Amino acid sequence: MGTGAVGSAIASKLAALGHEVTMGSRTAANERAAQWAAAAGAGAAHGTFAEAAARAELVFNCTGGEVSLDALQAAGAANLAGKVLVDVSNGLDFSQGRPPNLTVCNTTSIGEQIQQAFPDARVVKALNTVNHAVMVDPGRLAGPHNVFICGDDAAAKAAVVELLASFGWPRDAVIDLGGIAAARGPEMYVPLWLRLMGAVGGAEFNIAVVRPPAP
Amino acid sequence: MGTGAVGSAIASKLAALGHEVTMGSRTAANERAAQWAAAAGAGAAHGTFAEAAARAELVFNCTGGEVSLDALQAAGAANLAGKVLVDVSNGLDFSQGRPPNLTVCNTTSIGEQIQQAFPDARVVKALNTVNHAVMVDPGRLAGPHNVFICGDDAAAKAAVVELLASFGWPRDAVIDLGGIAAARGPEMYVPLWLRLMGAVGGAEFNIAVVRPPAP
Prior knowledge:
homodimer, alpha/beta, Rossmann fold, 5-stranded mixed beta sheet, 10 helices
């Protein structure tokens, strides 16, 4: 779900790995989705959010967090029920200028709001802490770095770890932060990410968790 | 300013480096401050926030962010004017349980609120993203890791970089995020830090910013 840089990167990676992918968008005739599907070849399709969700075993929410609940309502609760729903979104509010504020934070998060609105979906927050290029090609950075997952469904998290491994993320690079309420952590990291982007001069970076030396 | 684990760690490190240190607290007879000063030896003293600030060339705010404005009012604007004020604080709200929420975030930060309330102080946000032991002994972790500074006064930031270097932080480990409004970034990282503490099983860790390999 989503036709922007994140949706395109995830969809292309999944298609390259041999998965059947439907890029979902608000309308059936979305031009970017149609172009993506034509270029991505066999197994690639496009359709409405509802069509994409209905066909899918696993759904990536790559819409902007500020519109994700609307987009998922358009997808339809019945089409999401029982499915792993990987929430990659960040809710950014540009109304006060740049860098943006978050649309929600502190006492809730987009990930939690999605899980509450769609209790039969198996929501896993993941990948919202890195740029789209790093999401699907973590080896482009120099040295180990980490990605975070959280969610209330252990089997769904395990499935996401396997998917991340297929993207190139070493399994030991994936840090499980706990239940979906922990999504507040990676979502609230984004204001630091936005300022680091300025400080390091680009969006292709990530953080590694550094611990004491092994005893 | 502050007699907790953070204030004690910073005060002890400064004293060990040969600085004259006054540990400030709300009352002149604070037992922990008196014990610290007695144990820390020559050059170590204790007193009220106002006494400590009046004597200081440079002030560390190691009070809890939720009470920092009150503590700094007690210190007195005149005693802070023209001085570098290193704000190490985090505003934690435990009223909803653990992990705590932040008292302020998103559209403001403790660092900004302090700068606004004390316009003649030269506020630099620093070190709030690591545990007190890591603050003053960054070499205890395995491999390079980063610390963030921000503030509106370039000379004040440069002075803090030198102080951090004396604590053991390599100068190239210190990332300048910009003006004091950037304090939202490191302050809003704390909810992720709190969940990482659970995931990694302890408070002694930090993050390193990992970039693409040099061309």
